[in-house]
Amino acid sequence: MQNIKHIIAVASGKGGVGKSTAAINLALSIKERELKVGILDADIYGPSVSLMLGVTQGIKPNVKEAKFFEPIIARGIKTMSMSYLISGSTPAVWRGPMASSALHQMMQQTLWGELDFLIVDLPPGTGDIHLTLSQKVKLVGAVIVTTPQDIALADVRKAIEMFGKVDVPIVGLIENMATFICNQCGCETKIFGSGGGEKLASEYGLPLLGTLPLESPSSTEVNIEDPQQMLIRSDAIVREFDKIVDGVLDHANRSRASDTEVVFE
Ligand SMILES: Nc1ncnc2c1ncn2[C@@H]1O[C@H](COP(=O)(O)OP(=O)(O)O)[C@@H](O)[C@H]1O
Ligand SMILES: [Mg+2]
């Protein structure tokens, strides 16, 4: 835990906006810069990181010294998820009914080793888990994912404002499912209108890190039965994440100049 340079949370106002998709794409794109990355699936109620990364279902992390979990490595990324721990018989390290204590345990008791970035895929909304995380670890920043339809909604504003209250800087916004690229002719349609992400970003003085197209399932990489669990990572999305990673690295480097030590209370 002490060897993690930067912890970035990925959050959204509500579910289904592509938060996990964004968190995993971010992790993969950071990894492609030859940096060491881990991803913590903190979406206790709907963990999807392992499926999206194609981890064999039913796999359990090794337990060391009856207390620590070895992360499961998928596509070069160290992962830890509630989905590895909840089913079947799990060791006694896993106790406590509260979701926030579960998150804390996964964070603290995972043998992350040396990491440049730990990406935390948060549950949607602004609940206990978010507060616990913000209080227990020093987040270098939060990335907010939203879709164009949600931009006008209170949820996303609430998410932005919550991080402000707990002094977590916001790296910026990712607007997902913003445009549709026709796979017949390649033309791009802004199905929900345009400019929403920019407007929200400028309202809060935040960078718009990237705008992701709505892809058809044919562009998914992981071919599993449940299409809900496929990772969407098309060429267009990879290109956009290249830009997003620039924004994230920039933010991390700037905060590093001030202070970024990971501290526990
Ligand atoms: N840009 C996109 N184009 C097409 N489908 C997407 C896109 N982003 C996410 N999805 C799909 O939408 C669903 C919800 O995405 P997910 O990342 O699980 O959202 P969340 O974590 O916010 O609940 C998933 O089935 C995912 O594959
Ligand atoms: Mg999710």
> How many discrete structural domains?
1
- Decide which structural class fits the backbone: alpha/beta
Q: How many strand units? A: 11
Helix content: 25-40%
- The top-level CATH class is Alpha Beta
Task: List segments where confidence is low: pLDDT < 50 over at least 5 consecutive residues.
Answer: 88-97, 260-265
Order of helices and strands: EHEHEEEEHHEHEHEEHEH
Q: How would you describe the shape?
A: globular
Sheet having the most strands: 9 strands, mixed
Radius of gyration equals 18 Å
Cofactors, ions, other ligands: adenosine-5'-diphosphate, magnesium ion
Reported CATH architecture: 3-Layer(aba) Sandwich
- What CATH calls the topology is Rossmann fold
User: Could you state the CATH homologous superfamily?
Assistant: P-loop containing nucleotide triphosphate hydrolases
State the end-to-end CA separation: 13 Å
| Strand residue percentage | 15-25%
Mean pLDDT: 85
The tally of helices reads 8
Can you walk through the features of this model?
The protein is an alpha/beta fold. It has one domain: 3-Layer(aba) Sandwich (Rossmann fold), CATH 3.40.50.300. Helix content is 32%, strand content 23%. Strands 1, 2, 5, 6, 7, 8, 9, 10 and 11 form a 9-stranded mixed β-sheet that branches. The protein is globular, with a radius of gyration of 18 Å. Residues 88-97 and 260-265 have low confidence and may be disordered. Bound molecules: adenosine-5'-diphosphate and magnesium ion. Magnesium ion is lined by residues 19-20, 43, 46, 48.
